[in-house]
């Protein structure tokens, strides 16, 4: 069991379905900070009561200081530019839990223009790259031949996630997202993530329009900054939207025409080629369509069990995205290369460093590499006090 080997109940419980996590979560320390139970989760009423009876320590401390938060995120003052990226924060209860645990940036899990189902359970496995240091190199033979995946969660934590970007209907997520924003404390920010949905029979123009329509729905919630995911497999097997920079540019133009001055962050996967990365930057940030990049998403690898058989059940699930400690060098590499391009091209886009942040030192390493903000998904799931520890260390 996940908590038996690591001693921690992650706030997204990998032993439950996505639907159960959506209904009952968060779990672990996030549940406790909201007046719920680590094992059984938390209800909306408990969250309401917890917020009425005791504002978070962090907010108290910030209010007592009454000074402006020290840093900013795309022009919005934040205490520490550190948080949780798109994915494990499924709804307002999760984002409120994250804020109360001191994560000053909380990205609301990627939403769509329509309800969208989740891949079958299980959605999260532990992964164990073969190298002595546990690092997985993108495009390596191991990614194609198979990485061991099982239920032995251990530290430093590396996992795979296979959800298929599920979404509630906008009638559900819009009011929930609005509540999530209202529950950000002083020096904290809720960042919505969205993406387009490709359905059978859709023309390229309709696909572009779907992105713009989703951005409009997000804008209606009052978002101050928003993130567009271009790094999930929606162009066919192992092909990502961010592998088609001209298409990304066209989509960004339509989105930007919809959202106006609201800063737009594009979420990128690891792009190994310097030329491809430069082209992407030129046709998006270089055209003023994009104000920042968040990178990286997961690294695609074939997952196998101890007998070498497909680890995740079902067709089309032989490969899955790997995240956590195994991908930190790749995340740092993308951040360094983006920072280099920013300087060389004289552009001023922001960089959100993501990938393998599991310890406070990782936050500082990403900042030194050029990241303006840093986020942790896998690391935070198993280290709910990570933001507090970074604040102590700074
Ligand atoms: C449970 C889970 C769900 C995720 N879902 C999304 C998602 O909906 N949209 C997205 O852009 N990234 C998603 N991601 C990817 C993360 O945002 C992040 O890019 C990736 O996990 C690498 O960071 P990490 O090493 O800190 O986990 C998800 C990650 C996890 C662990």
TrEMBL record:
Its cofactor is FMN. Pathway: Pyrimidine metabolism; UMP biosynthesis via de novo pathway. GO terms for cellular component: cytoplasm. One of its GO terms (molecular function) is dihydroorotate dehydrogenase activity. Residues 153-392 form the Dihydroorotate dehydrogenase catalytic domain. InterPro entries: Aldolase_TIM, DHO_dehydrogenase, Dihydroorotate_DH_cat. Keywords: Flavoprotein, FMN, Oxidoreductase, Pyrimidine biosynthesis. One of its GO terms (biological process) is pyrimidine nucleotide biosynthetic process. This is Diguanylate cyclase. It comes from Bifidobacterium vansinderenii.
């Amino acid at each position: 069991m996940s908590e038996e080997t690591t001693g921690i109940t992650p706030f997204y419980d990998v032993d439950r379905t996505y639907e159960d996590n959506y209904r009952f979560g968060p779990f672990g320390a996030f549940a406790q900070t909201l007046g719920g139970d680590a094992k059984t989760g938390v209800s909306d009423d408990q969250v309401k009561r917890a917020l009425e009876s005791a504002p978070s320590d962090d907010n108290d401390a910030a209010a007592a200081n009454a000074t402006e938060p020290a840093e900013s995120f795309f022009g919005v003052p934040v205490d520490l530019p550190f948080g949780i990226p798109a994915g494990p924060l499924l709804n307002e209860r999760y984002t409120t839990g994250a804020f109360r645990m001191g994560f000053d940036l909380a990205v609301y899990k990627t939403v769509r223009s329509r309800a969208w189902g989740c891949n079958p359970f299980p959605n999260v496995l532990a992964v164990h790259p073969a190298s002595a240091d546990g690092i997985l190199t993108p495009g390596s033979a191991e990614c194609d031949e198979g990485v061991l995946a099982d239920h032995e969660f251990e530290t430093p934590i590396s996992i795979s996630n296979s959800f298929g970007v599920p979404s509630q209907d906008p009638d559900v997520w819009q009011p929930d997202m609005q509540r999530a924003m209202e529950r950000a404390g002083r020096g904290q920010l809720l960042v919505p993530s969205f993406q387009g949905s490709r359905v059978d029979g859709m023309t390229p123009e309709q696909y572009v329009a779907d992105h713009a329509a989703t951005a409009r729905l997000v804008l209606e919630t009052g978002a101050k900054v928003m993130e567009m995911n271009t790094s999930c497999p929606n162009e066919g097997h192992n092909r990502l939207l961010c592998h088609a920079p001209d298409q990304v540019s066209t989509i960004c133009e339509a989105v930007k025409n919809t959202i106006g001055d609201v800063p737009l962050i594009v979420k990128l996967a690891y792009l190994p080629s310097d030329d491809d990365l430069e082209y992407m930057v030129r046709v998006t940030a270089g055209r003023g369509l994009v104000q920042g990049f968040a990178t990286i998403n997961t690294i695609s690898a074939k997952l196998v069990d101890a007998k070498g058989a497909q680890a995740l059940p079902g067709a089309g699930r032989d490969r899955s995205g790997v995240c956590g400690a195994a991908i930190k060098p790749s995340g740092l590499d993308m951040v360094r290369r983006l920072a280099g391009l920013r300087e060389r091209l004289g552009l001023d886009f922001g960089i959100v460093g993501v990938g393998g942040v599991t310890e406070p030192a990782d936050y500082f390493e990403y900042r030194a590499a050029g990241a303006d903000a840093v986020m942790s998904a896998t690391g935070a799931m198993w280290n709910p006090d990570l933001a507090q520890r970074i604040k102590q260390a700074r």
